[in-house]
Design a protein that fits this description.
The chain is mostly helical. The protein has 18 helices and two strands. Its main location: other.
C-alpha cells in the first residue's frame, strides 16, 4: 500500500502541470460551437487577450455570462506562452488522422489523485485504517451495515438499487451516488449538503435511515478493540487521543480519495490511443458535444459540481438544505465516470436504462428530442468511461478483534 501511494502521489505531482486549466474547467463546456462560439472562432475574432477580456467582461455585465469564471486566467491560457493559439490549434488538428480528435478538447483526463486537503494529508497508515473502517459493519448501530454495503467497490461504488436499504430496512428515498472518484467533486450528496468527503462520511454513519450510529457509539466500540487503537496511533501520531470521531471520518475520506478509476477506454483515448474507442462511441462523443452536454458535464469526472434544476418528482433537492425558493428541484450535476455500471439513474433511481436516461436529460435539460440511434451512441460513449477500481481497494481487509459490547 505504501508503495502504491508513493507512486500515485508522484504521478499526481508530475502530471499537475498538465491538468485542466480555467478554460477547460470553466469555459469549454459552453463554448462548444452550439451554446457559444468555440475558442478557434474567439481567437480569430479577438486578436489580443485585452480584446478578449474586454468582450468577456461586457458579456458578464450584460448578464450573458456568469461571474467568477476567471476571465484573465482563461485569456492567459488562450493567448499566453503556454496557450493554445491559432497556429497550435491548427497543428494539433492536422497531426491526428482521427476525424474525432477535435472533440478531445472538451474533456479532461483523470488525474492520479484528487486534491488533498491540508488538514488531512494522505498517508499509507491513514489509508489502511480508512479502508478497514469503510468495510467494518461495527460502525453501525446494528453491526451489520458498513460503508461498503451501499457503496460496494466490487459493483461500481454503489449498490445498484433504487434506494439503499439501511437500519431496520428503512430507505432514504434517494439513490446512492458512487464513491469512486468522489474526491474530485466540489460538493457531496445530490443536494450538496456536505462540502467535503470528511463531512460526507459523517452523514451515513449517523443517519437514522442508514447506519443509525452516533459518534459516541463509534468511538466506544473502536476503543474496545486494541488493534484499532494501535492503528489510530500510527495514522494520527500527533494526536494525544487519536481514537475520536473526527479522525474516523478523516481516515475514511483519505481511503476514498484513493478510489480513482484510471485506464478506461475513454481515458486511454484522451491520452492518445485513437483505437481505444469504437466508431460508434466516437460518434456518441461528437453528439455529446454537439448537443451541449459538456456545458454541465465537464472536468475530470464530467461534473461541473454546480446545481441545476431537474424537476422529476416531488423531491425538492437543494431547497431542503438552503430553504431558498430558487433552490427548489436543484440537484448537483452527476458525475459520469463509471456511469455504465451504476444504474439505476437519477436522484430517485427511477430509470434503469442508460439510453432512456440520456433521452430524458437531453429533453428536460437541453430541449433536444433524441432518436433511438443517437441515444444509443451517446450511451455507448458513456460506457467507455468505465475504469478500473484499484485492486487493493477491492480486496476485503482482515478486520481486527471481536464484536465489542
Amino acid at each position: 500500500m505504501k508503495k502504491l501511494l508513493t507512486i500515485l502521489t508522484g504521478v499526481m505531482l508530475i502530471g499537475s502541470s498538465a491538468s485542466a486549466g480555467v478554460w477547460e474547467t470553466n469555459c469549454a463546456g459552453c463554448h462548444n460551437g452550439v451554446l457559444a462560439p468555440e475558442k478557434e472562432k474567439l481567437l480569430k475574432k479577438y486578436e489580443t487577450s485585452s480584446e478578449f477580456i474586454s468582450a468577456a467582461r461586457k458579456a458578464v455585465k450584460e448578464g450573458k455570462m456568469p461571474r467568477g469564471l476567471g476571465i484573465r486566467r482563461a485569456a492567459s491560457e488562450l493567448y499566453g506562452k503556454s496557450s493554445i493559439g491559432k497556429k497550435a490549434l491548427r497543428e494539433t488538428a492536422d497531426s491526428s488522422k482521427d476525424p474525432y480528435a477535435k472533440y478531445k478538447k472538451f474533456f479532461t483526463p483523470l488525474p492520479a489523485l484528487p486534491p488533498i486537503p491540508a488538514d488531512n494529508p494522505l498517508t499509507p497508515e491513514k489509508v489502511k485504517l480508512g479502508k478497514m473502517l469503510y468495510y467494518d459493519p461495527r460502525l453501525s448501530r446494528s453491526k451489520v451495515i458498513s460503508c461498503n454495503t451501499c457503496h460496494n467497490l466490487a459493483l461500481g461504488g454503489d449498490d445498484n438499487v433504487k434506494s439503499s436499504i439501511g437500519h431496520e430496512w428503512k430507505t432514504g428515498g434517494r439513490n446512492a451516488p458512487t464513491t469512486l472518484n468522489a474526491g474530485f467533486l466540489r460538493v457531496q450528496f445530490w443536494d450538496g449538503r456536505a462540502p467535503t468527503l470528511e463531512e460526507q462520511a459523517k452523514g451515513p454513519l449517523q443517519a437514522h435511515v442508514e447506519m443509525n450510529s452516533t459518534p459516541e457509539i463509534v468511538v466506544r466500540r473502536l476503543k474496545a478493540i486494541p488493534e484499532y487503537v494501535e492503528l489510530f496511533k500510527k495514522a494520527f501520531p500527533n494526536d494525544p487521543d487519536p481514537v475520536n470521531f473526527t479522525n474516523v471520518v478523516k481516515a475514511i475520506a483519505a481511503f476514498e480519495r484513493t478510489l480513482t478509476t484510471p485506464n478506461s477506454p475513454f481515458q486511454r483515448y484522451l491520452l492518445g490511443d485513437e483505437s481505444a474507442l469504437t466508431k460508434e462511441q466516437k460518434e456518441g462523443m461528437k453528439l455529446f458535444v454537439k448537443y451541449g452536454c459538456t456545458a454541465c458535464h465537464n472536468g475530470p469526472v464530467l461534473s461541473d459540481g454546480q446545481f441545476h434544476k431537474f424537476k422529476w418528482n416531488k423531491d425538492l433537492g437543494r431547497y431542503k438544505v438552503t430553504k431558498k425558493a430558487s433552490d427548489k428541484y436543484m440537484f448537483r450535476t452527476a458525475q459520469l465516470l463509471n456511469v455504465g455500471v451504476t444504474a439505476p439513474y437519477f436522484h430517485d433511481g427511477s430509470v434503469n436504462s442508460l439510453e432512456e436516461a440520456v433521452k430524458i436529460m437531453a429533453e428536460k435539460e437541453l430541449g433536444k428530442k433524441l432518436i433511438d440511434s443517437e441515444a444509443k451512441k451517446i450511451a455507448d460513449f458513456l460506457r467507455s468511461m468505465t475504469g478500473e477500481v484499484p485492486l487493493q481497494a477491492r480486496v476485503l481487509p482482515q478486520l481486527p478483534g471481536n464484536n465489542p459490547e
